[in-house]
Structure formats: structure tokens, C-alpha cells
Amino acid sequence: MTGDYAVIALYIAGMLGVGWYGLRLAKTKSDYLVAGRRLGWFMYSGTMSAVVLGGASTVGGVKLGYTYGISGMWLVVSIGVGILVLHALFARRLVRLKVYTVGEMLDLRYGGRTSAVSGVVMWGYTLMLTVTSTLAFATIFKVLFDLPNWAGIAIGGSIVVLYSVLGGMWSITLTDIAQFVIKTIGILAILLPVAISSAGGFDGMSAKLDASFFSFTSIGTDTIITYFVIYTFGLLIGQDIWQRVFTARTPAIATSGGITSGVYCLVYGLAGALIGTAAHALYPDIASAQDAFATIVERLLPTGVRGLVLAAALSAMMSTASGALIACSTTTTSDLLTKLGLKKGGEVSRNRLATLLLGLLAIGIAMVVDDVVNALTIAYDILVGGLLVAIVGALFWKRGTRQGAYASMVAGTISVIAFMIIDGVDANTPIYWGLGASLVVYLAVSLATPRTSDTILSVWTRRLSGAETPIENREQEPTSA
């Protein structure tokens, strides 16, 4: 394993070095939270791909492929479709708004007083998303050092927290580009062809496995539909994703770079399912499907190459964990602490402190959660059930009111949590009950309350068209990066 240790050590040192360099770039709030809104096409596309394809998409995607075959691709495919829809329909508008959080957008559209509730929901979502990728570190460090889960989580999580705290979005952007390249090479160029070839190609896998492994619907049509409801809609409204959209230098860059990223996600989803299918053909008696990724890497690849693929998996986990962590920090400082009367000033230091404390909290939670896919489901169920209706209503229905948005967020979130308790975390019903309750309440309360004032809607319209720039951004016109 000496060669593997050397590769992983170089990778970790590189991530920390980039994080330290990012410290020099993060001078303002805009630098720290949205990389100065200066990213060009390649950096934008690479970082968007990196943030959405994390531990759940890599370890979890291979796990689903091991269990269901090619049909295991639908979780990651639904994420890719979400990225495509977001950038085809919404990205240009979001870039022109020049906000930092989903809550700020809701306050701008509805006239304030909604970001406290949306901030709580988004805070829970981004924290659990951080947990899912932090949890997945255990798999990699178990293979490398035979460490217990808690130790692997502590090591991987600490690295992410350190470089995120140092340079914020600039550190995360620079590390994400490196991570994007590494996981493209490790997962798509090395592990995928080696796994399929070792399993005897498609003919060999067909001879060893049941026909259901090659059905696109073996995971269940209801589950596939639910994946699209949860993850496609979730990608449209998540703070971690919007915060990356805000980093684009222009609306056109956001659109073209995001569509490229969406296509990449579709390819990645299919690759993970095929790797899992090959793993089942080769090693049908793995005790836990969660270990399918680590098993096939450990048993198939030579030293050095194995280290590169494990570094690729770490890249996927770290990019999502760091993106979710900075999103959670941003929501905390911009949407929650400001509502408690926290004055402006020292914003970068305050965000660094919030990032540190939230990172430590995520590490602690990850040590007591044992299923990466279930943790991701919790995060997205709460997000979509609580916020989707109010956000889509803000963008497309002028009759929507602050009272309607507020009530829909409360009703949707409570319904999701209640049905998770009643039917179970992995049930399909919570998200549908949450969306139903949120939609009915939003329509009813909005129609029963006074329309949003023309003054508020005129400011919203000017910002949405790019005709008005927020005061804090007028002295920081973006340049190329």
C-alpha cells in the first residue's frame, strides 16, 4: 500500500496547499462566499460538477448499481437532469439578482420576513448534505488504513473544514477544479473500464447476473419517480447549488457551463451503476452493498493506481462536503444571525468562524449516522417539501404573497418530518405529502391576503432584469477568472 499512501498524501497536501493559497484571495464577503462572482466557463462547469457529485453519488451510486444493476443510475441521473433544468431555465435570472442566499431572494421578492423560516429549512438541508459526504470518508480510510469509521470521518472532515475555513469559496473553487480532474480520471477513465473488463465485459456480466440487473426499471418505477421529485427539484433550489450559480462572471457563462455540467452528471451516473453491476458479478457475497465501491477498488487495482482512484473518491466527497459547508455557513450568517440583530462588519471573520463550528458539528453527526443515501434523502425531502413551492412561486406567480410563502414553508416542512416519523425515512410518501400541503397552503393563503405591493415588485423586476445592482456590489464589478 506504500504507493497508495504516497498518492493520497500528495493529494491531501495539495488540497491544503490550495486552501492556504485561497486565504490570499478571500479579502471581501463577495470573495469568501461567491469567489468574487468572477468564474469563467471551465472553472464554473468543473466546480458545478464537483459540488453535485459527492459521496452519495459515488459510493452511493455504486451501492445502488451493486443492488439493482443498471437501474441504480437513476439517483445520479435525476441530479444531472436537475442541473440541466436549472441552467436552462433559471440560471440567468439568478446571476442577475446578485444575492448570496435563497433567503435573500425570497425576501427581495416577497418583501422580507421569509428568510428566517427558509433559512432554518436551508440550514438543515445544507448541514445534512455536509454530513452525507463527511460520512463517506469512512469507506476510503477503512481501505487505506483499516481505521474505524469514526477515525476516517474525523480525518476527512478535518481536511475539508480546514481548507474551507481558510479561503472560503475561492479555496473551494480551486480545490474543486483539481478534484474534478482527479475524479474524471479515477472513476471514468480507470475504474469503469477496469471493472467492466474484469467482469468479462457485458457478455460476462450477463452470464453471471440475473436479467433484472440490466433492466432500467428494476429499482422500481415509483422509486425512479420519487428520485426525480426529490433530487431534480432539490437541485433547482438548493443553497449549495445557487451559491455556485452566483459565482459565474456572466449569465451566459452560467448557462453554458451548467448545461455542460449536467451532461457530465448523466455520464457519471451511468458509470457508477455499471461499476456496481460489475462489482456484483465479481463479488456477489459482499456483506454490505455500502462497501461495494471500496471492495472493487481494493481487489482489482494495483498499488498506486488504487491510490489514485481512492483519491478520486475522496475528491467527490470533499467537493460536495465543502460546497455544502460553505452554503450552511452562508445561510447561518446571512439569513439567521442577521435576523438576531447581528451588525455588519467583520463579515469574513464571522463566516470563517461559522464555517469552523458547523464543520465540527457535521463531523460529530456523521459519526452517528450510518447510511449515506438515507441521510441524503432526509436532506432533500426537507428542502423540496419545505421550500420548492415558495421559490417557484416567487419566480413565476406575481400573486404569491409573503404570508403565503411563510405558511407554505411551515406546512411543507412539518408534513415531511411528520410522515418521515410515520412511514420511515426511506419511504416515498413524505415528499409527496410535504409538497401537497405546501402547495395548497401557498395558494390558499396567498389568495386570501393582500397582493404584494407594487413598490416591492418593481424593485424585484429591476433586479431580475439586471437593471439594478445592489449597493454592496457596485464597487466590485467582476473581472475574468
TrEMBL record:
Provide the topology term for how it sits in the membrane: Multi-pass membrane protein
> Which family, according to the similarity comment?
Belongs to the sodium:solute symporter (SSF) (TC 2.A.21) family.
Protein's name in the database? Sodium:solute symporter
PROSITE patterns (UniProt xref) = NA_SOLUT_SYMP_2 (PS00457), NA_SOLUT_SYMP_3 (PS50283)
Q: Which residues cross the membrane?
A: 6-23, 44-66, 72-95, 116-141, 147-168, 180-201, 213-237, 258-283, 308-332, 353-369, 375-397, 404-425, 431-449
Keyword Cell membrane tagged: yes
Protein keywords: Cell membrane, Membrane, Transmembrane, Transmembrane helix, Transport
Q: A single Pfam family, by name?
A: SSF
- Please give the chief subcellular localization of this protein: membrane
Q: Where in the cell is it found?
A: Membrane
